[in-house]
Amino acid sequence: MTPDLQGQHVERDGVPVMRIDLHVHTEASHDCRTPIQAFPAWCLAHNLRVLAVTDHDQHWGGVALQQHVRDLGLDDQLWIIAGEEITTREGELIGLFLQERIPPNLTPEDTVREIKAQGGLVMLQHGFDPLKRYRLRPEATARIADDVDIVETFNARLSRPQYNRDAATWAQARHLPECGGSDAHTLQDVGEGWSEAPLQPVRTPEELLAALRAGQVHGSWTPPVWAFVRKQWRNLWSSASGRGRQTPE
Ligand SMILES: [Zn+2]
């Protein structure tokens, strides 16, 4: 299969726009099998131009995808952010624009310090869903609130849409940029939560923050039971037909 590696041209009210998904897992995560090589064709086909790779306690997935995109000559169409979904002692946090891996099991405060020391951004993801076992604990969220740079106000995997609204209320009270995230663990889930923004390169934290502030959060929420059944089906399908094959929707 030769993937169509040409970005789409999508306009809204005459302005070219792109999608941004800041919460995606790859084969570098223990619970995900999506091959790095599968992303560029999928992203371009869905006008996803900015993608943050946020593997569980791993950083190499994002670096490998950046390299792959460069090798394909797509680095002027597809901007990959190397991130990490970091397990702290009190739940998870995401670091974006990281230079190297941050180890798990630090305190939330030390994790934030490590992210900032690398020039990275702190993103609070699925922070308001009490059924998310690994969400950052409310006490910890309160302690690091001043250091949060971005709030994920649409996560496609929450147990109830209300928890996304709670995140949006929290972000808006602090005037923080919001983003959508798919929390994708299969290729087909990539892009189910996104921000739409005017098309522009995003290579630095400042450019990302500006794009988010100019953008709008979107997403399609999936009831958890259906998401679970679908994930099992997609995993079965990809084992039966070879890793990374795209399944029909
Ligand atoms: Zn995640």
CATH top-level class: Alpha Beta
Q: DSSP strand (E) fraction? A: 15-25%
For the sheet with most strands, the description reads: 10 strands, mixed
CATH superfamily: Metal-dependent hydrolases
- The total count of helices amounts to 7
CATH level-3 fold name: TIM Barrel
Overall SS class: alpha/beta
InterPro entries: PHP_dom, PHP_domain, Pol/His_phosphatase_N, Pol/histidinol_Pase-like
GO molecular function: 5'-3' DNA exonuclease activity; 5'-3' RNA exonuclease activity
Domain Polymerase/histidinol phosphatase N-terminal: 20-90
Protein name: PHP domain protein
Task: Describe the 3D structure.
This protein is of the alpha/beta class and 249 residues long. The chain has one domain (11-240): Metal-dependent hydrolases (TIM Barrel, Alpha-Beta Barrel). The protein contains seven helices and ten strands. The protein has helices at residues 39-45, 60-71, 108-117, 138-144, 161-173, 205-214, 224-241, and strands at residues 11-12, 15-24, 48-56, 79-88, 91-96, 121-124, 150-155, 178-181, 193-198, 216-219. Strands 1, 2, 3, 4, 5, 6, 7, 8, 9 and 10 form a ten-stranded mixed sheet that branches. A hairpin with a 2-residue loop joins strand 1 (11-12) and strand 2 (15-24). The longest helix has 18 residues, at 224-241. The protein is globular and about 45 Å long. Residues 243-249 have low confidence and may be disordered. Bound molecules: zinc ion. The site of zinc ion (ZN) has 5 residues, from loops.
Chain-wise SSE layout:
Blueprint: E1 11-12, E2 15-24, H1 39-45, E3 48-56, H2 60-71, E4 79-88, E5 91-96, H3 108-117, E6 121-124, H4 138-144, E7 150-155, H5 161-173, E8 178-181, E9 193-198, H6 205-214, E10 216-219, H7 224-241
Parallel strand pairs: 2-3, 3-4, 6-7, 7-8
Antiparallel strand pairs: 1-2, 2-9, 4-5, 5-6, 9-10
This protein binds zinc ion.
Zinc ion (ZN) binds next to loops.
